[in-house]
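Could someone model pyridoxal-5'-phosphate with this protein?
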Amino acid sequence: MTLPGSGQAQLDRRRSAFDLDPGTASYSKHPMAQAQLSIDLAAIRANWRALADFSTGEAAAVVKANGYGLGIGRVGPALAAEGARRFFVAMTDEGVTLRRVLGPGPEINILGGHMAGDADQIRDADLTPMLNSIDQMLRHVEALPGHPFGVQLDSGMNRLGMEPAEWAALRDIALAQSPRLLMSHLACADEPDHGMNAFQLRTFREMTDGTGVPRSLAATGGILLGPDYHFELTRPGIGMYGGMPFADALPVATLALPVIQTRDVSPGEAVGYGNAWVARVPTRVATISAGYADGIHRALAAKGYLWAGNSRCKILGRVSMDLITVDVTALEQVPDALHLLGPKQGVDAVADAIGTIGYEVLTGLGSRYARTYTGA
Ligand SMILES: *Cc1c(COP(=O)(O)O)cnc(C)c1O
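Reply:
Sure, complex below.
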């Protein structure tokens, strides 16, 4: 569009000042530095190793949801190189992807079991579904007789798996088909003193004692409850990725967000949507290129900080779709980027600030970040 009169000349001058391509006015010829998500594969390996060494039996690796958002294509092979031979994913599609990544050999277990229509993929990718119901059991032995499977039992969480009565009815038939694994999942393992842990342990034992089949009950929290909960196989997830309840985990993810622009605002001036923040004193505001479309929750605006080295910078006003505004008044020099995740603030600190858990922060990490992997 050509602007009338001096408007066009003014726009052309601005374009050349900012080096804009007149054909695509909103894109710079020199692309803005992209937000950088750096994932430390050596830390993931060390965290898995620590949890595996603590387990009395074997440790699997849970890599559902694209390796908790960190990239199954890199996380899977790193864990295999560290010695993991059994993997868990949530769904068949994830298992197919993981098989492509790992090649033949490692056991890939599907927590969601054998869903309708998945038989070909389960067979072709050599996946092992954890059967969750009589229906799934029938579907599996009918479609893929002789194909390996495990059984997921519900020991009290009431989420997934066969309940005690269902299992009692099916147990002899299922055991005659030689399941690879009997497993269950703990509801309250991140609260070591919760009575539910002992209750589920007792229930799981009652359902599985004397079967002679390898058993698995513990995810990260269950591993930390101690050897009573370990059985033959543990299933760590979040602890490998640096999250609570594994307090000794090495941090895995670093997220640096570029500063696009800096401005000084005077007392009385507002920043961002809804005039949600108003300056009371002269304030230097940096605008950051990332927002809720990148998984940075709007709720972070209330209590959140980004970090410049050892200095924390408060988020001002609202988190927008692609932008965040932060207070950089105290910085002597504004750096090129500020950290949301780094040495001063891990996934659980961010999670606490918005009333959620590290799992959600990790799996919510957006697709627009430039991802780099270290320690491979
Ligand atoms: C997600 C999941 C795990 C891993 O749990 P973490 O708490 O991340 O260690 C293990 N088992 C089941 C059934 C799961 O759904």
